[in-house]
Amino acid sequence: MRLKDQVALVTGSGRGIGREIALALAREGAAVAVAARSQDEVNAVRKEIEGMGRRTCAGQCDVTDRDQVARLVREVEATLGPITILVNNAGIAASVKTVEMDDALWERILRVNLTGTYLCTKAVLPGMLRRQYGRIINLASTGGKVGFLYSAAYCASKHGVLGFTRALALEVAKHGITVNAICPGFAETRMTDESIRRIVEKTGRTPEAARQALEALNPQQRLIRPEEVAAVAVMLATPGAGGIHGQAINVDGGAVMS
């Protein structure tokens, strides 16, 4: 087990990619704290991890709330020990023309996707600096490298996550901490299901045609599986990945080759 004696906190881990990352880290021996806004969802994931015989805890948290984040980190470290792996996965999306964008929605997307990543990192980073070790993994998107139609707020937030990742990587490079981002393409998640629903509403296509349109963006002609993203997260979380730093790794079947 590559992550024995490690303690991981995974935000947005009640379902989808976050859930798969939490389970994959646990399979490799890590103690895993699962966190999301839905207590029912994180409790279900916690039970799955307990079934593996791993130490775990679950917390309800809004990553845009500084006090909730601070409380979550305190509770995790009191229960499982010092956090050595942070996976910033919590995120939201919306499809809307910029001219029709509600300012509150714009702010909400940036606060969850970008400010939430910052707040969680800031809460965990002092301990990593004291111990001179840590792994920070930020879930961005191929939308952090290119633009997607009607997704200005989402793309802006994910471009911001990549900028934050690279700048922070320089700050902590001499302290045994790595900071990297993963950029998934369209994946088999509830968020993609919502994208398909919006395509159907806006274009009148059938759900199958809408799904095929997203699959066509991937040269492999398919959606990415959450466990494929989780495999990269596990690799980045291992002690042996210390030389991988400040990178934005695509998991998209070759849709974006940069």
Overview of this structure, please?
The chain has 258 residues and is α/β, with parallel strands linked by helices. It folds into 2 domains: 7-94 and 103-184 and 225-250, NAD(P)-binding Rossmann-like Domain (Rossmann fold), CATH 3.40.50.720; 186-223, no CATH class. The chain has helices at residues 16-27, 39-51, 66-80, 103-131, 152-172, 190-203, 207-215, 226-237; strands spanning 7-11, 31-36, 56-60, 85-88, 134-139, 177-184, 248-251. A 7-stranded parallel beta sheet has the order 3-2-1-4-5-6-7, with helices on both faces. Helix 3 packs parallel to helix 4. It is globular.
Class computed from helices, strands and strand pairing: alpha/beta
CATH architecture of the largest domain: 3-Layer(aba) Sandwich
Percentage of β-strand residues: 5-15%
- Note poorly predicted spans: none
Strand order of the largest sheet: 3-2-1-4-5-6-7
Q: What's the CATH superfamily of the largest domain, by name?
A: NAD(P)-binding Rossmann-like Domain
Order of helices and strands: EHEHEHEHEHEHHHE
What radius of gyration results from the CA coordinates?
A: 18 Å
Write down the domain tally.
Answer: 2
Task: Note the gap between the termini.
Answer: 32 Å
Shape: globular
Helical element count?
8
CATH topology heading of the largest domain: Rossmann fold
Strand element count: 7
Fold blueprint:
Layout: E1 7-11, H1 16-27, E2 31-36, H2 39-51, E3 56-60, H3 66-80, E4 85-88, H4 103-131, E5 134-139, H5 152-172, E6 177-184, H6 190-203, H7 207-215, H8 226-237, E7 248-251
Parallel strand pairs: 1-2, 1-4, 2-3, 4-5, 5-6, 6-7
Helix pairs in contact: 1-8, 3-4, 4-5, 6-7
